[in-house]
Automatic annotation (TrEMBL):
Its cofactor is heme. PANTHER family: CYTOCHROME P450 FAMILY 4 (PTHR24291), CYTOCHROME P450 FAMILY 4 SUBFAMILY F MEMBER 11 (PTHR24291:SF210). The keyword Membrane applies. This is Uncharacterized protein. One of its GO terms (molecular function) is oxidoreductase activity, acting on paired donors, with incorporation or reduction of molecular oxygen. Keywords: Endoplasmic reticulum, Heme, Iron, Membrane, Metal-binding, Monooxygenase, Oxidoreductase. It comes from the Eukaryota. Transmembrane segments: none annotated. It holds the Pfam family p450. It is found in: Endoplasmic reticulum membrane. It comes from Geospiza parvula. Belongs to the cytochrome P450 family. Heme binds at C460. One of its GO terms (cellular component) is endoplasmic reticulum membrane.
Length: 517
């Protein structure tokens, strides 16, 4: 065990090569290792500054290799390792991605800096909000925000209901009145893809019932991205493009781009032909989809988004939006199946809401009338966050609350999982307890303690969309089925990739409710 001092932080290196960061005293490190490993060991004249020196040639360090395995290992053991680090160090630790690449891993609001920009080395079908930076990101964020306003989202509730009913109608038919065993993540991914394709493109692919070339390309891209992250030699694009996976990635991207470009160009031509007002008049009485909204949006100078910009944002929404929501729903169903008392309370809440109606659809106004169901969704997102960590590279010096500063250029890995499992923030963090999110228990809690959609200026722009979709899906599911654990199978082993999965799938029993058509 060797250790050094970094400002008021004590840096400890364990036998596994992990470097942990804990508060220490001023002084020179002693131990089995000597040297500063490129870090200051003196008190800066300007004050207490957390200072990490990186070679000028490496001032833009790569982060792709950390995105897929943000916890150190992309396994159940890796997440347990994070639990151990959080319990021991509470606020954060220092990890060496490479001998010259320090990464601050943070899991407490006091040390979590929501930096204004970031570079994430994650391959994606387009340079949308996830990957863009600087003025491009700021402009696109401003232009896209109205597309996620409540007045727009309420028009999507019919699609949420329709897609969910299509999924569980088929499941009920397969059950034949008895329980059916189902691995829930894969069908939920198709459900969310079906929903997104309707909301973004107004396209009915019936992907939940039959194969779709476009949907298969999206699913293949997700799989290929995960495989690439686990193969560091293929991180350079020029080398990846020569591999068989790289060629498959290029073909899948071409399929996705061709579909999106065709939709955007056809809509652009129709808009130019009809004119702005005639186009709006033609949409009266029906909602506009995501592509429509982006075609009409203008910045403060009257400039519109280009076809390429619109296609990139649509592809990003499809690529990043389907599996995160599916993961959140799958783990929510698992947690409700594991706690039948909470599941039954949610069901009663839904049944009371729908009692006496001619329709069993969930409406926009209903979403605020499901308080306990909402608490269960939030607690499941805390316990099993779909994205376990996000990487940020500081584009300016970031002052912490205690006066120290994280210098510009340093990579911070905000551990969403670690924050959500921090016992300083969440007593008994492994317990599923929806009442943590009751109004009385939420008083005084830092908003940065619960960050399933990240936080700060680069938080998830689609979080209200995702929460609305999850409420509709769980409400309609519980109104038709009882969710049960399959006790013949062992507990799932968590597997953090681009999203939080289960190593051998999340298997549940869906038992149709008696007397429900």
């Amino acid at each position: 065990m060797g250790w050094w001092h970094l400002g008021r932080w004590e840096v400890r290196m364990g036998e596994d090569g992990m470097v942990a960061l804990a508060k220490g005293q001023w002084g020179q490190g002693v131990g089995t290792s000597k040297g500063t490993v490129g870090m200051d060991t003196h008190v800066p004249k300007a004050g207490n500054v957390l200072r990490t020196h990186v070679s000028p040639s490496l001032s833009v360090p790569p982060v792709a290799h950390m995105f897929c395995c943000p916890q150190g290992q992309s396994t159940e053991e890796g997440l347990r390792q994070v639990d151990t680090l959080v319990a021991q160090y509470h606020h954060g630790c220092l990890w060496w991605g490479l001998p010259w690449l320090p990464v601050l891993r943070l899991f407490h609001p006091r040390t979590t800096p929501w930096v204004p920009s970031a570079d994430l080395g994650v391959p994606s079908p387009g340079e949308g909000l996830l990957l863009s930076n600087g003025q491009r990101w700021a402009r696109h964020r401003r232009l896209l925000t109205p597309a996620f306003h409540g007045d727009v989202l309420r028009n999507y509730l019919g699609i949420f209901n329709q897609s969910t009913r299509a999924k569980w109608g088929a499941a009920a038919a397969a059950a034949g009145g008895g329980p059916v065993e189902l691995e829930v993540l894969q069908p939920l991914s198709l459900l969310t893809l079906d929903t997104l394709q309707k909301c973004i493109f107004s396209h009915e692919s019936h992907c939940q019932e039959q194969p779709s070339k476009y949907i298969q390309a999206i699913l293949e891209l997700s799989s290929l991205v995960v495989r690439r992250q686990l193969q560091p030699l293929l991180h350079p694009w020029w080398l990846y493009s020569l591999s068989s996976d790289g060629r498959r990635f290029a073909r899948a991207c071409a399929t996705v781009h061709a579909f999106t470009a065709d939709v955007v160009q056809r809509r652009r031509r129709a808009l130019a032909c009809l004119g702005h007002q005639a186009w709006l008049d033609g949409h009266r009485g029906r909602s506009m989809d995501f592509i429509d909204l982006l075609l009409l949006t203008k910045d403060e100078n009257g400039h519109t988004l280009s076809d390429e910009d619109i296609a990139a944002e649509a592809d990003t929404f499809m690529f990043e939006g389907h599996d995160t929501t599916a993961s959140g729903l799958a783990w929510l169903f698992y947690n409700l199946a594991s706690h039948p008392e909470h599941q039954e309370r949610c069901r009663q809440e839904v049944q009371e809401l729908l009692a006496g109606r001619d329709t069993a659809d969930i409406e926009w106004e209903d979403l605020s009338q499901l308080p306990f169901t909402t608490m269960c969704i939030k607690e499941s997102l805390r316990l099993h966050p779909p994205v376990t960590a996000v990487s940020r590279r500081c584009t300016e010096d970031i002052p912490l609350r205690d006066g120290r500063v994280i210098p510009k250029g340093v990579i911070c890995l905000m551990s969403i999982y670690g924050t959500h499992h921090n016992p300083d923030l969440w007593p008994e963090p492994e317990v599923f307890n929806p009442l943590r999110f009751s109004p009385e228990n939420s008083k005084g809690r830092s908003p940065s303690s619960f960050i399933p959609f990240s936080a700060g200026p680069r938080n998830c722009i689609g979080q209200s969309f995702a929460m609305a979709e999850m409420k509709v899906a769980v409400a309609l599911t519980l109104s038709r089925f009882v969710l049960r654990r399959d006790n013949a199978r062992p507990p799932p082993r968590r597997k953090p990739e681009l999203i939080l999965r289960a190593q051998d799938g999340l298997w549940l029993l869906l038992e149709p409710l008696v007397g429900v058509a």
